[in-house]
């Protein structure tokens, strides 16, 4: 049995700042080791941020204008010379494909996820 201390989930959840965003730009990312896109997302008053995501089963056209959920306070990460500024959230299926999370209609860029 693992007796190590566990964070209290209700207290830890607010530490991750998750926000609604809208994809505004998608660029190829041929330098990445695994197929990926460079994706710009508008987070409303929080501004635009870029990320790299291995979601190439979505076309660029499918992604542009799509609402998404991003964790925006996890720090920056350098990936093949590109700075990823947030984590795009999705569900990972048994095949390994990431299905992006999407809020219902009416959620606006910058809205916090609760």
UniProtKB/TrEMBL annotation:
Superkingdom is Bacteria
Record keywords: RNA-binding, tRNA-binding
Q: CDD domains from the xrefs?
A: tRNA_bind_CsaA
Q: Which PROSITE patterns match?
A: TRBD (PS50886)
One Pfam assignment: tRNA_bind
**What are the TRNA-binding domain coordinates in residue numbering?**
12-114
Q: Name one GO molecular function term.
A: tRNA binding
Q: Does the keyword RNA-binding apply?
A: yes
This chain's protein is named: tRNA-binding protein
Q: What lineage is this protein's organism placed in? A: Bacteria, Bacillati, Actinomycetota, Actinomycetes, Pseudonocardiales
